[in-house]
């Protein structure tokens, strides 16, 4: 999100001019190849900059008065939508309306230091579960209604060796025991489905059935037919496996 020079209100979204030399060829490449522009919006850090109760509700998808965008006439009820739409506005301003926005990272820490407001299990659960519900509803964002934004959650596990503040180490959705750090709404059957698979049962191999040996009787050609018949090509034992392998590879492709 640091590539944006402006993001509030979302309609004012614009990239930093000093990054044009790097961004312009990148965006042109994404447009040419039909690839998305990946961003990492974190409402948690927006709340750190403005730790008011109404901001927390806005960041957690909880009921709030909404924030009107005078530039677009739209009203926003979540920081996530506002951040995504600010990137959308920046892309549109550059002329890249065909480049999709994908959220490569977002999340909320379940714990933090005394100076890190909002880093708690309750808030992390609210953010992730409400985000999942919001995405599944397919309501979209005010600027991009009717479709869900592809979103990747950060992170699977905590990073206890990561330097920095305590919150930076505490974004994990799961414990190393394969249990959820808190209910997220992501699992169909809770965490039971994450248990290690049981070892497969190996049955003793049965002996192959005996194949009766049959000696074919070859007809004896007459002298005349033997003299006139064209030579027949009989595939050798070495040729047969090659044919079977070729058929097998073709079937795989």
UniProtKB/TrEMBL annotation:
The entry's family comment says:
Belongs to the glycosyl hydrolase 17 family.
What are the entry keywords?
Glycosidase, Hydrolase
Q: What InterPro entries does the entry give?
A: GH, Glyco_hydro_17, Glyco_hydro_17_plant
GO terms classed as biological process:
carbohydrate metabolic process
Identify this protein by name. Glucan endo-1,3-beta-glucosidase 7
Kindly list the GO molecular function terms attached to this UniProt entry: hydrolase activity, hydrolyzing O-glycosyl compounds
Q: Does the keyword Hydrolase apply?
A: yes
Q: Name one Pfam family in it.
A: Glyco_hydro_17
